[in-house]
Amino acid sequence: GAVVSQHPSWVICKSGTSVKIECRSLDFQATTMFWYRQFPKQSLMLMATSNEGSKATYEQGVEKDKFLINHASLTLSTLTVTSAHPEDSSFYICSAPGPVSGSYEQYFGPGTRLTVT
Amino acid sequence: AQRVTQPEKLLSVFKGAPVELKCNYSYSGSPELFWYVQYSRQRLQLLLRHISRESIKGFTADLNKGETSFHLKKPFAQEEDSAMYYCALITGGFKTIFGAGTRLFVKA
């Protein structure tokens, strides 16, 4: 089956630094990937759509200069949280549509827990 | 507006009892709806999709366009069903909108 991985699974960084999170589709190609943010005991909030070879599409209210997305290949999208602050601490999840044409099923990564101190 | 509503944050039932997790949606187009499940310490995974009209792990969900609902049902809950359940709506370009989620707790 389709597998999506994320790295790292957790990261702690100091306020003001940047941190990069990777999302990989392991056994299929994904021209589109999605990045979500999940606060404790809350639902997933779509942050942006990552498009291979072009600019990401951000949801309303999401700062594109703060959350940099790069989708340089068909199997890798990265999310960089720039100048991180404690309020950026959250669980970040990526997903990709599966390889079956016409299927809207999303395959999710295990998530990355970011803690900004 | 595109929206998915799951009115219950927590649903607690006894083992063997029927369970229904409610989901209502708002979407101007033809809806593509899914139920995703997240077991403890695991990633989100697909449970079922409306278009396939399948039963997975004893769960079924019927799309009711008149009531704009896609409730998830199981006649006899099992302890291993305890998890977080998310109703999801697919909009244009594969974008998925999630409901707030319902935590199902099945008591022994």
Short description:
By secondary structure, chain A is mostly beta strands. In chain A, 0% of the residues lie in helices and 52% in strands.
Question: How would you explain this protein's 3D organization?
Answer:
The complex is a heterodimer of chains A (about 120) and B (about 110). With about 120 residues, chain A is an all-beta fold. Chain A is about 0% helix and about 50% strand. Chain A has no helices and 11 strands. The radius of gyration of chain A is 13 Å and the shape is globular. The mean pLDDT of chain A is about 90. Chain B is mainly β and about 110 residues long. Chain B is built from no helices and 11 strands. In chain B, a hairpin with a 5-residue loop joins β9 and β10. The radius of gyration of chain B is 13 Å and the shape is globular. The N and C termini of chain B lie far apart (about 40 Å). The mean pLDDT of chain B is about 90.
